[in-house]
């Protein structure tokens, strides 16, 4: 019942718009500060610390997310220059997508992905709060972007998809007939 309300109700779309703008602003400013900061963004220290001091079980002192730590060690840290680019620009683009209300679900998916990565690395900060709000936005689906650019873009995209689906690709007007490539 709540999911249906979030996904279809116009009043919910109004509330989701405010929520979307807030979460988008948080992402936008986080990315913007990393891009325009006095020193270039560098994730090396963060990644090194997440590898050296992973989240551990209090009883066994074993890493709770050993696969994530292995990913950081084997891929993220050796490719830190790529992550130095992906993190700030990813945060900025998530924020822009949410604020404009275009590709809202996609933007929120990548925002949630980053939130979980930060939490797996041991950073709490605002990540649990943004994760909770992000789950609400992603559950709402297209209704979260109802009062945004998506409202104007969606009919155009549907039109393009229909044109592409019904394009006969030069094989004449044969309905559903398929012609082999060698014919």
Characterization of the model:
InterPro entries: DoxX (IPR032808). Its main location: membrane. It is a multi-pass membrane protein. Helix content is 68%, strand content 0%. Helix 5 packs across helix 6. The chain has helices at 2-8, 10-36, 44-52, 66-76, 80-100, 104-120, 127-140, 149-166. The radius of gyration is 22 Å and the shape is globular. The protein has one domain. With 183 residues, it is mostly helical. The longest helix has 27 residues, at 10-36.
| SSE ordering | HHHHHHHH
Quote the average pLDDT: 91
> Can you count the helices?
8
Report low-confidence residues grouped into runs of 5 or more: none
Distance between the termini: 53 Å
Provide the helix percentage: 55-70%
* Secondary structural class: mainly alpha
How many structural domains are formed by the residues?
A: 1
| Biggest beta-sheet profile | none
- Find the count of extended strands (DSSP E, 2+ residues): 0
**Beta-strand percentage?**
under 5%
Task: Specify Rg, calculated over alpha carbons.
Answer: 22 Å
Quaternary state, please?
Answer: single chain
Tell me, briefly, the overall form: globular
Pfam family, one: DoxX
Protein name: DoxX family protein
Transmembrane segments: 12-32, 63-80, 92-117, 129-153
Main location: membrane
Short key terms for the protein model shown above:
single chain, 183 residues, mainly alpha, globular, transmembrane, membrane, DoxX family protein
Outline:
By secondary structure, the chain is an all-alpha fold. Helices cover 68% and strands 0% of the residues. The protein contains eight helices and no strands.
């Amino acid at each position: 019942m709540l999911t249906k309300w979030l996904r279809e109700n116009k009043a919910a779309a109004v509330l989701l718009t405010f929520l979307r703008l807030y979460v988008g602003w948080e992402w936008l400013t986080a990315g913007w500060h990393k891009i325009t900061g006095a020193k270039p963004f560098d994730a090396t220290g963060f990644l090194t610390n997440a590898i050296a001091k992973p989240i551990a079980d209090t009883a066994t002192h074993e890493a709770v997310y050993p696969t994530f730590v292995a990913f950081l060690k084997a891929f993220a840290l050796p490719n830190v220059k790529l992550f130095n680019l992906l993190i700030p620009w990813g945060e900025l683009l998530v924020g822009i997508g949410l604020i404009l209300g275009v590709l809202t679900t996609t933007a929120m998916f990548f925002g949630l992905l980053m939130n979980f990565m930060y939490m797996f690395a041991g950073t709490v900060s605002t990540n649990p709060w943004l994760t909770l709000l992000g789950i609400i936005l992603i559950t709402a689906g297209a209704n979260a972007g109802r009062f945004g650019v998506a409202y104007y873009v969606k009919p155009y995209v549907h039109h393009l998809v229909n044109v592409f689906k019904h394009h006969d690709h030069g094989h004449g007007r044969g309905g559903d007939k398929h012609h082999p490539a060698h014919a």
